[in-house]
Amino acid sequence: MTTVPSTAALLADIAPDPGGSDGSLVAVLLLAAGVVAGAVWLIRLERKRRDADPGSGPDTR
């Protein structure tokens, strides 16, 4: 009689170990989140500046 390996054993042969990245994935995700947060902050700052001075900006004619 042959034994069938469990699903976890099959996935262990295919998928990498989640802890094997030494935190580099966490660092990349934190860096990406920081870039996005900075971009959102700059966009909000620019909108606030345009609202404070309605005579400036590229849409003025």
TrEMBL record:
<protein>
    <recommendedName>
        <fullName>LPXTG cell wall anchor domain-containing protein</fullName>
    </recommendedName>
</protein>
<keyword id="KW-0472">Membrane</keyword>
<keyword id="KW-1133">Transmembrane helix</keyword>
<feature type="transmembrane region" description="Helical">
    <location>
        <begin position="25"/>
        <end position="43"/>
    </location>
</feature>
<keyword id="KW-0812">Transmembrane</keyword>
